[in-house]
Amino acid sequence: MLIFLLSTLALVGAQHNHFDEHYNFGHLHQPIEQTIVFDCGSNPNRAIQNPKFTFNRNDLELPGTFIIQDFEIEITKPIPRPLYGRVEAWRTIWLLGGAGSTIQIGCFGLTSSSTVGLDSVGTCNYGDLCGILDLNTPINDTTGQPTCFNEAMNLGIPEDQCTCEGIIAPKIYSIPNWNNEVDLTDLEPGLLTFLAEGDYELKLIAEDDQGNEEACIGVLVSVKEWEDPNATGGWLFGKRR
């Protein structure tokens, strides 16, 4: 589950408690003024709950960077295997007069990815997240044995247990004052196509093999184009002109 969370950190922000499982995705009534992440889960027995993030800005400027200042998430029970993940995504643009035009975004393939198994963005199914985590587990340069991500070890996960089973619950995993910079200055073209300027709603869902909800994380974020004062032109459907 860690790789699922880390792969989406670029699109999350500070939690507001009045957003919950009743939030109606795909029906924005006004522009997003600050980034919000909230628990949209309805299963009281879900394994992953109460995501909390703080960032140094209220929108996502691309290409650009941002800083994850604090991170916290609650694991209420051992994470089941397999754990199937999917994302549902909507984009809203605001027309003259303030009317919003919303579409559900399709699944865009990526030609390259730093994470094996995460080769698409948008409204996509990602299969077994635990399997993706296994494929991306680092190898210790000295011992040649599987080790763990530094972020995971900072959360108290043992070095030799960097799997779904290694996340021992119940526990609140937290990194206060993390101040980790995420660099998005050299984005893959397929990701830029997905992240055209606009307001985004994302629903990140994880389920066990019986279809039981184990996590639901809602994200609202405004994506802005970084404007180079020395450049001409801009984005056209998510690509540089």
TrEMBL record:
<keyword id="KW-0732">Signal</keyword>
<dbReference type="InterPro" id="IPR028996">
    <property type="entry name" value="GM2-AP"/>
</dbReference>
<protein>
    <submittedName>
        <fullName>Uncharacterized protein LOC109467481</fullName>
    </submittedName>
</protein>
<dbReference type="GO" id="GO:0009898">
    <property type="term" value="C:cytoplasmic side of plasma membrane"/>
</dbReference>
<dbReference type="GO" id="GO:0005319">
    <property type="term" value="F:lipid transporter activity"/>
</dbReference>
<dbReference type="InterPro" id="IPR036846">
    <property type="entry name" value="GM2-AP_sf"/>
</dbReference>
<dbReference type="GO" id="GO:0006689">
    <property type="term" value="P:ganglioside catabolic process"/>
</dbReference>
<dbReference type="GO" id="GO:0008047">
    <property type="term" value="F:enzyme activator activity"/>
</dbReference>
